[in-house]
Amino acid sequence: MKLGLVIDLDVCVGCHACTVSCKQWNTSGATGPLTDLKPYDEDPQGVWFNRIRHFEVGDSPNSKTVNMPMSCMHCEQADCVDVCPTGASYKRVEDGIVLIDQDKCMGCNYCSWACPYGARELDRDTGTMKKCTLCIDRIYDENLEEIDRQPSCVITCPSNARHFGDFDDPESNVSTLVRQRGGHQLMPELGYSPTNHYLPPRIMKPMPTAEAKPGSLISSVKKWVNQSVSR
Amino acid sequence: MQPAFSVIAFTVCSGAGFGLYMLLAMAHVLGFLPILSRGEILFGIVLAMVLVIVGLLSSTLHLANPKNAWRAFFRFRTSWLSREGVFAVLFFPFAGLYLLGVYFADMKTGDIGFFSKLMGLFGVMLAFATLFSQGMIYGCLKTIKQWNTPLTPTNYILLAFMTGALLLNVVLAFSGQAVGVMGGITVGLIVTAGISKAIYYYWIRTPSGSSINTATGFLRGNVRLLDVGHTAATFLTDEFGYKTAKGQLNLFKAVVFVCGFFIPFLLTAFSVIGASAAVFSALLAFVIAMVGITAERWLFFAEANHVVNLYHGAQRT
Fold first, then answer.
1. Do A54 and B227 count as a contact with CB atoms less than 8 A apart?
2. What angle do CA A183, A186, A187 make, to 5 degrees?
3. All domains in chain A, ordered by first residue
4. Which of A86, A112, A186 sits opposite B239 (nearest CB)?
5. Is the CB of residue A90 less than 8 Å away from at least one CB of chain B?
6. Which of A194, B110, B173, B261 has its CA 20 to 30 A from that of A203?
7. How far does A1 lie from chain B, in Å, by closest CA?
8. What is the largest CA-CA distance in chain A?
């Protein structure tokens, strides 16, 4: 099995629900807690497994806002695992999930240097590195309903932009989506072969926009009066 | 990349220590400096070992969870950091046996016997392997273009030899000897290391193949970061988002070349031709070179641009 996520950049609205639900689930999960330092201060800092960056693609007026959620890509060529001197970082043979043994990590930061996607963050409180577990404590939990055996972020997403599945199975939901929608990897040139794929936004016809009509003399005067009065 | 003082101190100190040991042991065992006395060799080796130990201790300061540091020796097969640790620790028994050999040397002939010589040379090989691994820790990272080059381990090794040679000159000068052959070797090492570092600085001026386009997958058109998605700094922006003024980088580069290479070159050349007081110029050359090489190590980190910065507003790395 090669478990991973497909993220649909066409429908992601950038609401950060996945990041918050990830934090909520995982802070009491397998590699929790996701410590927050100075949470009510001016510069709060904490561990997140999932972060969303917002980009503008193209030049205005033909530009588009793209929200890009990023978590561990569970790379096939996971350099973060190779560089780890203690053996705390490992990639599971059975499902390809990359994990960190919190009891072995010495907090040298070397794995975070090797990760191009910023998936690994040091917990300055425990002194250990932490990262997305693909919710191993959810996806294999037989006490949950089958539909709930998915990562927390996937279940939470209100716009259904996140999909979880097995990339080794060519007929799985994720493989089909990547095939049909032309899913791509991030920074493939580095050769990490990340498992997670991103579906590009669909190409839509430009939406016609009406020019604003110039107002009559009376409406201009009214507008001016209104503005003056409100001050 | 955030320059970590403990790592800078570690690489500079242990580099000088390993460099001194390698040159001293080779000079003694292979006999290209026949004038070395027993006291000088003992002092030099102990000094080298102290520098390496100080460096190694300093390196553990940057660990967030040092109680697990002992586990760092167990991934020799894949991790250069692990290899560096193993080689550095293995160095000590061999260097120690060589030290004992020198201590119990034949008083009349000064011969230390085949076994001690062999141990000394094994120590040289391990010191070299440690320095190579130290460079490869950085050289193997595909995420940082400025490090991902064979020039990285080359520079680590050359600078270790160079600072070690300058330190050996200090040892020789204190025992009242002319630097002689060693002065010539030092000048050669300074020139080689300086040229290699200059090539490196030219090489890192070209950006890497990764850009904000490959990072987001939108290969056509301009891509701009609108919002990083967090209001305060994160581990990632602290660790990789280190920014300095361009003027400061140029100033440090000037320090590297003037203090690291040019002044030590002049001082060593003067003492070779006998134009300056040996102890003073040798000591000054070493101290100034260490300042320059510390600046070099600081720049090595400050100029490293990790690709994750593409997600925090950089257009290219």
1. yes
2. 135
3. 3-230 (3.30.70.20)
4. A112
5. no
6. A194
7. 24
8. 77
Confirm or reject contact between A45 and chain B (CB < 8 A): yes
Topology of B5-312 in CATH?
Formate dehydrogenase/DMSO reductase fold (1.20.1630)
Of A43, A106, A185, the CB nearest to B232: A43
Q: Which two tokens mark B311?
A: 């997600």
- Tell me the domain boundaries of chain B: 5-312
CA distance B6 to B60: 8
Q: Do A131 and A121 contact (CB within 8 A), yes or no?
A: yes
Interface of A with B in 140-159 (CB under 8 A): none
Q: Which residues of A touch B233 (CB under 8 A)?
A: 43, 45
Per-residue pLDDT tens listing for chain A (231 residues):
999 999 999 999 999 999 999 999 999 998 989 999 999 998 999 999 999 999 999 998 888 999 999 999 999 999 999 999 999 999 999 999 999 999 999 999 999 999 999 999 999 999 999 999 999 999 999 999 999 999 999 999 999 999 999 999 999 999 999 999 999 999 999 999 999 999 999 988 877 777 777 778 888 898 889 888 876
On chain A, the residues whose CB falls within 8 A of the CB of B59 are none
DSSP state of A151: -
Whether residues B225 and A53 touch (CB distance < 8 A) is answered with yes
Q: Which of A183-192, B30-39, B193-202, B223-232 has the lowest mean pLDDT?
A: B30-39
